[in-house]
Design a protein that fits this description.
Number of domains: 1
CATH topology: Alpha-Beta Plaits
Strand order of the largest sheet: 2-3-1-4
CATH class: Alpha Beta
Oligomer: single chain
Distance between the termini: 13 Å
C-alpha cells in the first residue's frame, strides 16, 4: 500500500474516496479512529492509501478531478493559461500539483492536502 494523500478535512477525504471509487480504484482510509480517540480535533491527519500499482492512476485521477477555483475557468479561457492554486483555499485545478520540501504533492488543493511521495 502507498499513501496517496493525507488530510484533516473529512469532506476532501470523502470526495477523494468517491472519485477514486468511480475510477475503479479502491482506497483505504487510515488513522480515522486514532483521530477520534484524540477528540476529533483534527490534530492527526488521516491517510488515504491505495495499492502500489494504482498509485500513478490515482494521482492522475485526483489531479484531473480537482475543482476549479471560483472564476478560474473564465480567466483561463481568456488568458489561455492554467490558473494557479491558492494555497489557502484548498481548491485548485489539480494540474498545479506542487511538491513540498518533504516530497509530497498537494494536487493543487492547498497545503493541507499532501499527496504521495
Amino acid at each position: 500500500m502507498k499513501e496517496l494523500c493525507r488530510s484533516n478535512d473529512p469532506v476532501f477525504l470523502s470526495w477523494a474516496t468517491a472519485v477514486l471509487k468511480d475510477a475503479g480504484i479502491t482506497a483505504i482510509l487510515l488513522d480515522q479512529h486514532t483521530s477520534i480517540l484524540e477528540g476529533s480535533i483534527g490534530a492527526i491527519p488521516r491517510r488515504l492509501m491505495v495499492i502500489d500499482e494504482d498509485l500513478p492512476t490515482a494521482q492522475r485521477v485526483l489531479k484531473e478531478m480537482a475543482p476549479e477555483p471560483d472564476g478560474a475557468e473564465e480567466t483561463s479561457r481568456e488568458q489561455n493559461q492554467t490558473p494557479a492554486a491558492d494555497p489557502n483555499s484548498h481548491t485548485g485545478t489539480g494540474a498545479d500539483a506542487e511538491t513540498g520540501a518533504d516530497g509530497t504533492s498537494t494536487f493543487g488543493l492547498g497545503t493541507g492536502w499532501a499527496g504521495a511521495k
